[in-house]
């Protein structure tokens, strides 16, 4: 089939009824559910962009295997030009959603592409796993599917490994092998956008200890597989609030969910890893799984740029951007954006071609972005809150604003600096409040902190790896000079 349209994506959603729970009831018609209608539209628009003359050549390519047009997320980059094709897709889709939707289809499609380009890793443990991941890659590429993923065990007792939790099937684990497949039971989180995806892929961060074998799993199944239950969090919006009152929250909410597997049968041809702690611990570092940090970096840059522009426009609208304290805050945000932009460019320019001939962006600058964003984005939000101050809380609803008895007051008292009308200021402040005050905006902050794991442990790991590959010899050189001159003087 190759690239889908938005309508084909929506038809896919309509064709099945996964077990989705929201607000105490089962959702039977996801496409017409208030909470999901608009986010589905936003994803559909991305699929439509693949067919638009303006974007098609930028974000899709002809597949060498099939001759069909596929998303650039499915390219296995061989050189800088290929990397740029993929980056353009990340950028175009991030700009279409202002970076506010992190788990658009490109994210996991790139991830699976990277996994499938490492068949040797899987084959050393089980040749069937290598074949399975490669077939799965072709399947999602040729059908242009949208995946969610759930890597994390439910947050019960983090001081104990999976096999020591209260119930051995609290964390998702293998129950038994049958002729149809592997039966799995337990829970995983935090499957963003799960209700409106086609498939779910399960794998894990490293950290498996002896005794955890049954939890060492990687597989993918359709989102409506029997026994798979999707428990949505409380929505940040009800899907009925007017666009004019909540220009961002009403459109871009990504629902998050806990997945419960009630004896789900995973067909053997969908198993990529099982019952092997060593393989599960190595999966991340040995399969280029972390390649999705490139998508994270590009999208994060767009989101930070957007928040920076919102802060600047708020400051300008109320005439405070001539004050030094406001300028230093805005300057700080611009410098954060420029830092991320430079790091991305470095990562792309300093790409390496690995033993399999795959071009991969340099990991240190990408990991550095991963370390900076969890601080830079919350800071941008804090700056919007600080500059917008009390005014952020006082925006009237569109109904208030348009009421004939009130309109004169709004026009008189809600305008901004000379040249900024009340309508312009109120609209801007509503948008800013969605980003920095609403539950929607707070989730976006939490996303930036945690979307790819715990930033604290990630930074620790980053330093350990850095130390392994760097000898800090400048210190020796400096001391050597001192010792040599001592000897000469002596
Ligand atoms: C909005 C949002 C969307 C997300 N989307 C997805 C998704 O689509 N798919 C997915 O799989 N995941 C997703 N994640 C989950 C993300 O991967 C996890 O939140 C992240 O890995 C952190 O895990 P946790 O939330 O369980 O925190 P925990 O691991 O429980 O950590 C809680 C606190 O304890 C500390 N801590 C815990 N254990 C240790 C330790 N061993 N050593 C030191 N400190 C420790 C942490 O630093 C942290 O402060 C999402 C998260 C958010 C917030």
From TrEMBL:
Which terms are listed as keywords in the entry?
A: FAD, Flavoprotein, Oxidoreductase
Q: Which InterPro entries match?
A: Acyl-CoA_Oxase/DH_mid-dom_sf, AcylCo_DH-like_C, AcylCoA_DH/oxidase_NM_dom_sf, HpaB/PvcC/4-BUDH, HpaB/PvcC/4-BUDH_C, HpaB/PvcC/4-BUDH_N
Q: Quote the record's binding site residues for FAD.
A: 149-151, 155-158, 192, 454-457
HpaB/PvcC/4-BUDH C-terminal domain span: 280-479
Q: Does the record bear Flavoprotein in its keywords? A: yes
Name of a matching Pfam family: HpaB_N
Gene Ontology molecular functions: oxidoreductase activity, acting on the CH-CH group of donors
All copies of domain HpaB/PvcC/4-BUDH N-terminal, residue ranges: 5-273
SUPFAM superfamilies per UniProt? Acyl-CoA dehydrogenase C-terminal domain-like, Acyl-CoA dehydrogenase NM domain-like
Q: Which PANTHER family match?
A: 4-HYDROXYPHENYLACETATE 3-MONOOXYGENASE-RELATED
Recorded protein name is 4-hydroxyphenylacetate 3-hydroxylase
